[in-house]
Amino acid sequence: MVAVQKATAQEVVHVxxxxxxxxxxxxxxxxxxxxxxxxxxADEFFALANIITSVGIGAIFDLQDGVxxxxxxxxxxxxxxxxxxxxxxxxxxxxxxxxxxxxxxDTRISGVWAYNLALDFVVxxxxxxxxxxxxxxxxxxPPLGLVGTDEPAFASTNSIGTLVFTVNTNQMPSGxxxxxxxxGWVNQELAPIYTPVTVMNGNQxxxxxxxxxxxxxxVALTGQNTATDVTALTAATIAGPLPIxxx
Length: 247
Prior knowledge:
The chain is 37% helix and 16% strand. By secondary structure, the chain is of the alpha+beta class. It has 2 domains: 2-136, no CATH class; 145-245, Immunoglobulin-like (Sandwich), CATH 2.60.40.
């Protein structure tokens, strides 16, 4: 498909542009890792492409906010990338029969969350030893799974209004389930929304999907319900995040 080939070529240009920005500012560039994407048909491909572009858009917003304070001259270059990513996302959604514009605002996520989400697709041990300290020092959280969904999809297979997540208890911090737990939901420009979690069978986490979410939401397990932005929620994340396509 010509549009997919064009999107691929544009992503190559984006990578080269970011590398040039890093080099001009004396920062270390990063060699590519090897990646594995769990898709076996076109529907899964476009659903996963929507998830990945939503993660990328959210991460670029966070980058844009950072450079607006530290290097405002770079903000235009970053903005020029995010608009193209949004067009890619709209195409992927339309090809899958979904609305290209599911919400009035896209969702910003933190760089730490974006890093953890990217790790889901990185082949372990494939990144070499040249990662800068600023990356290797980022926290890595235990991943969240979603009961009833084994492949990328636009719609959850859990019962309406309720989601059941899973965690690997061997990866969780000691005593994690001995205190009140919440799912922190980030969507559009809203402050994080918190829903209480019920732990079942030791590793399953049941919660309700908040009303009013549209597009792509991101959710993480946390032990508090007072953080008012994604940066503060990131600092209080216990597991996750996980992208949740709402519409």
